[in-house]
Amino acid sequence: MSVAPSDVGVEAKENPSHHAPKDDPISLAELAKCDGSSGTTYVAIKGHVFDVTGNKSYMVDGPYHVFAGKDASRALAMSSVKPEDVRPDWADLGAKEKGVLEEWFNFFSKRYNIVGKVEGASNF
Predict the structure, then answer these.
(1) Could you give the CA distance from residue 119 to residue 28 in angstroms, rounded to a whole number?
(2) Is the pLDDT of residue 11 over 60?
């Protein structure tokens, strides 16, 4: 069973400090450093890097820390927090999972700033 933001009653609140999306290249090594253990926290979805810094859910002891510093596209599409599902590939998933991924992408887009794109990503 897939769970999307709307299924759990989570609404994306507009972020008052929202900036225009950036498309600066962010290497996988740089993304990995932004895992919430030392301040800056990024989560990538479909190759777009979101700055989730300040959200305790993505920090070291948070329930979604598994996504921090990674492209979590597949895991989000599958509504999974299993480390083995946290990876960028999602094209082989079914229509339902792709729809869930799109809902998560829209949710993050409204709530967090896009600070760049994963360098070399092909999963847009």
Answers:
(1) 7
(2) no
